[in-house]
Amino acid sequence: MVSKASRLRGGHGSALPGLVVEKVSPHFLRDALAQLPYGVVVISGTNGKTTTTKIVVELLRAAGLKVFTNPSGSNFTRGIASVAALEMKRGRLDADIAVVELDEAHAVHFVRQVPPKYSLILNVLRDQLDRFGEIDTTAKLLAQIAERTTGTVVLNREDPLVATIPAGKKVYFGYSGSVAELFPNDDELYGAKKRSPPGKLAATVTLDGLDGSLATFNIGSAELLLRGAHNALNAAAALALVREILGDRFSAEESLQALSQIRPAFGRGESFMINGQPLELILVKNPSGFRISLASQNNARAATMIAINDQYADGRDMSWLWDVDFSILPSVEMVSGVRAYDMALRLETSGVDVRMVETDLPAAIDTFLTKNIGHDRPMQLYATYTAMLKIRKALKARRQT
Amino acid sequence: MSRTLTIVMLYPAEMNIYGDHGNLEFLTRRAELYGFTVNTVAYEPGDRLPDNVDIILGGGGQDSGQTKITDDLVKLAPTLHKLAQDGVPMLVICGLYQLFGHYFLTTDGVKIPGIGLFDAHTTAGDERLIGNIMTEWEGYQLVGYENHSGLTHLNDGQAAFASVLKGAGNNGQDTTEGARIYNVFGSYLHGPLLPKNPKLADELLLLAAKRRFNDTILNFQNDHAKKTLQLLDNLAEKARLIAIARSR
Lengths: 401, 248
Prior knowledge:
Strand content of chain B: 25-35%
Order of helices and strands of chain B: EHEEHEHEEEEEEEEHHH
Oligomer: heterodimer
CATH class of chain B: Alpha Beta
Number of domains of chain A: 2
Radius of gyration of chain A: 21 Å
Largest interface: A-B, 35 and 39 residues
């Protein structure tokens, strides 16, 4: 009944049906999710939530489970209730398991209503401090997720603030050996601390090597369509979680096979072909994410564009741009977005040559593509969230013409 | 003869939360374009300050970071007072600005001691004051971003650094922003402050150059340096205009 009422409002991923069902039945979400045989899985952390959730969902589906998940963007309780309402059949959620992606603050709200059976905590990095205030505060929020988890908590061994989160049953994912060099930590930028070696705790899944697209884990290897070291580590996190969920049914071979088929999530390292030339669209939202993307994705031959907006979803404070070391870039062809001049100033201060600045995004994209198409050069485009949405739209429009 | 300026960054490992590194990078770049050789020093707890300090910078930290550096900062207090009286320009932002006052009173009622260079104290507030901020300093508009819950009150006789045009500043009540004594500037503005406000960067460099070399003006190292400085100023000016037009 609730489902029908909410269906009238329509709009997949919109929070409106959720608002309706919350009013009609405040325990709707808890009750709907409580029926699932494999329970509820919460994935949180600063970076990599969307991609990791996608990997987990696809690995579970490959193992034959019916998975309920929240599309990225509706990552708050009401949004999840909306989607659940739309997927109800005869008063039941037609799924074996729910896998939900939640940011730190929303996750706390959610787990109070719905204690998860499993949770995965990826990392806690400086991100949008205008929203969360302090990193330590964020870490405390994540600890509450672990506390409410009834089964296993999967933690990042290499993130000191995450590894130390107390939990009843916990397992770790991580990396080993020289892979550590691909993951600079937040404090390293200032030359004060050295790169942290892999942790000493036992991890169930580790990323042991990354050679181009070939990722080697302690449980086997896979060629990845997902780009970058951070995504290979996200894959390790997903494998560790799926291994817990499936237990005896887990097959490393099958999971790695499924992993190799997974494409990047919306706007997270998506590849476009523009007139036969590859263009990578890379979402950047905080210093560590930007730095890891630059280190693992940057191609010295590529033409680079950077687009920085300052809406709430991008982060309103521009200070973070100064926590990224851009000196790895030989030059930047185009800088755009509302805060293009902040970005250009930041680059030129480090001696990175900026060829053009254009605050208007569609105009900037046009110029960037016009200048670079036909020169046999790959293109890479780093963008904050709302800039990414605009760019994606512009690229899609262009592809259709 | 090489003209060297030594710039010290206080506690970069713990006090760096809002792009504070950007102040050091921007100041260093400008100093080099003005023909100075720059020696940058990261000062961490237990270190010894170098002998010829020309400029000191400090940034903001989390509560846990502030706790970690307090003991060392208190030990360093007499040296910092002496350097301040000696005219060494300093710029401290947010967390270290607070600790350059008498104390920081936390929500739990704990008094974290400061060095009392500014005749001011800070009390933890209930809400974070967050957003774009604009202030006026000697007729020049300073633009930046503030994000603090501490409320700073200047005692009578303690000069503010600037007055608030938009935003909260020291406490959201009295329109004061930051504090100044000798050539020591304390402020809540990050963004970071110096790249957004090159005039302040030049002021710090000129104060240091006067003290060390009796310079009266900053000279471009050469034509190329002049062009680069003009480029940076041009980009900064455009970034400033956009920041000023953004909503709080």
